[in-house]
Amino acid sequence: MQSLPTVIVIGGGPSGATAATLIAQRGYRVRLLERERFPRFHIGESLIPQTYWVLKRLNMLSKLKESKFIKKYSVQFVASNGRLSEPFYFLDNNPHESSQTWQVRRSEFDRLMLENAAEHGVEVQHGVRVVDVIFEGDRAVGVRVQGEDGANDRIERADVIVDASGQSTLIMGKLGLRQRDPLLRKAACWTYWQGAQRDIGRDEGATVVLQLQGKQGWFWYIPLHDDIVSVGVVASHDYLFGNRDLKDFESIYQAEVEKCPALKQRISKARRADIYRVAKEYSYRSRVAAGNGWVLVGDALGFLDPLYSSGVLLALKSGELAADAICDGLARGDTSQAQLSCWETEYFRGMERMRQLVLAYYSGLSFGKFVAQHPHRKGDITDLLIGDLFRPELDETLALIQDAVNSHTAIEALA
Question: What span, in angstroms and rounded, lies between the C-alpha atoms of 133 and 168?
Fold first, then answer.
């Protein structure tokens, strides 16, 4: 009896675990190779509501409901002058279970996702480093792997290789596919606080976006369980790291706290609970999502500015779309680029919708003023904020947002 086709997934983060689980659910043999031992640290803690539908397919919802993760119902913006916007409550826009989501500690969330993959029949191997993807002509046919000690170098072959290697971007780097975003050359510096201010009721788990004075950047404020809050600043790379001691992350961070009184008040009685961390110049995407015998998912496909917490959604969605394309292709014996990339256009259009919303914020657009001028569009704005990115009808609202950005820019130029 001929064995079922084999898929190798490189990386055990949310995108890799999603793709692996969904392919295994269809009865195919899947091996997932993860270089680290879980749990391990990762940033990107805030889930947005549209993750619900992929998590439901993965049979993850019961695990999340039983977890200690903080429930998230909304997002709120604080302007540079300290004025709070009206919160965007997801349930008010869509009274469905999917409108409540979670703030997660990624070390715990990613471990749950990987354990779930194993429960669905995925062969998970930890401590295995993929050092290269092997091509024959233009087709990926396997991977070269090493153990944790650098020994046991070997080649493993598969019908399809899923690159979920995160920002290591194995195939993207090998084939020169990276495209950096010239308008989003941002960087971040963050840490964690214990005992920081928390709102009450359904606002307890809200993601808060606080703008710096001078509108040079913004802080995220994400409440996690065990009385921990994730707090990080995002600004242009040149602003955040130019003419500063690049090794003194604390001074860089604290200088920006001073420019955000609303944040300073929130953490005034808190104790720092972790080291300072940084990420630099991180917005990019691949020119293509797949080739003959290979597919990119998650950060190995692209990464978008974290303003609206879209990272985990894009990881799950790319993993889901790629898995469906792979399974359909394996069923027909077609693992060509045309088949494996059949979801590429839809996905990139969705990613671009979120990008347009991000650019509007950085251009100085007030969403509060926009909604006041276009009250019937508030539902569309909320849909975009929850990650409902794959509906072309939202492009009409995005066009109005772009018109507002252009008007705002013209007025500032005359000022």
Answer: 13
The sheet with strand 29-34 has its strands ordered as: 123-126, 29-34, 6-10, 160-163, 294-296, 290-291
CB 75 within 8 A of CB 86: no
Give per-residue pLDDT as tens, 217-269.
999 999 999 999 999 999 999 999 988 877 899 999 999 999 999 999 999 99
Q: What is the DSSP string of 246-276?
A: TT-HHHHHHHHHTT-HHHHHHTTT-EE-S--
Give the CB-side neighbour count of residue 217, counting CA atoms within 13 A. Answer: 29
The one-character DSSP state at 156 is: E
Q: In whole angstroms, give the CA distance from residue 32 to residue 126.
A: 9
Chain segment 147-162, per-residue pLDDT in tens:
887 777 899 999 999 9
Cα separations in angstroms, 11 against 166, 167, 302, 406: 7, 11, 15, 41
Nearest to 298 by CA among 164, 178, 168, 110: 164
The alpha-helical segments, DSSP class H, found in 141-217 are: 170-175
Cα separation values, 228 from 109, 159, 252, 273, Å: 16, 44, 21, 8
Q: DSSP letters along 228-251, please?
A: EEEEEEEEEHHHHHTTS-TT-HHH
**Please, which residues bridge with residue 76 across strands?**
208
- Rounded to 5 degrees, what angle do the CA atoms 63, 272, 246 make? 105
Strand partners of residue 302: 285
Tokens linked to 130: 């993929």
Treating both helix axes as pointing N-terminal to C-terminal, what angle do 344-362 and 395-414 enclose, rounded to 10 degrees? 30
Residue 383 to residue 162: CA distance in whole angstroms: 30
